[in-house]
Amino acid sequence: MSAETILVLGATGASGVAFLKHVLPLSNGPNVSLLVRNRSKLPQELVTEYASKVRIVEGGLTDESKLDEVMDGVTSVVSFLGAYMSFYYLLTRYKPTPIADSFPLIKRVMKKHGVERLLALSTPAHSLPGEEYTWIQYITTMIFPPVVVPQGSAEMDAIGAICADENFEYTIFRVPHLSTGTGEERVYAGFYGPDFKGSQQLTRESLVRWVYTEIVQGDWVRKQPALGNY
């Protein structure tokens, strides 16, 4: 059994569930620790079958005691937390960032438990200095998201900024539109510009395969690659 224990944040979302479906059946795969508001939203057959590899703590991101409990023995933290489209925020242009605001506490608890590895989902709305966009990339990443999903764009940008903390071995993986697939799709990781080979589509199954490989291999430590199928 792997010595790796991964705390998965956002485990009940589509990408979080896809991650569990990928890693739990692996014969030498990791143990997982899950912080969820409602354990009934987890894939019950899966977590029951691999119960020996799963620890579940019910609680919120701002509950320090629950974070302390779920962080015990963890070696890496991966966040699939993300904002959702809201008609209310579209109309009001209100941009709260509750997920990003929870990460200072999460990082403090990580430090308490000696956990250095942090991987967090963001989007191309979180741009990096020096990236040179083609006009299509600029429209789809810098113009469209802030206009159509202002709160979501602000949330994901803030998550990327807060988690790119040099006190941790972080990887911010910036994803485009997520879809379903087989998991066999190739993933390109790099930085936006004319030479970026990835599309503006990424299957969740190929995303979670890439994320787990990154946890194992660490090719993108302290970097913030954009991902896309190609």
Automatic annotation (TrEMBL):
Coiled coil: none annotated. This is NAD(P)-binding domain-containing protein. GO terms for molecular function: biliverdin reductase [NAD(P)H] activity; riboflavin reductase (NADPH) activity. Gene3D superfamilies: NAD(P)-binding Rossmann-like Domain. Belongs to the avfA family. InterPro entries: NAD(P)-bd_dom (IPR016040), NAD(P)-bd_dom_sf (IPR036291), Polyketide_Oxido-like (IPR051606). It comes from Kwoniella pini CBS 10737. Residues 10-211 form the NAD(P)-binding domain.
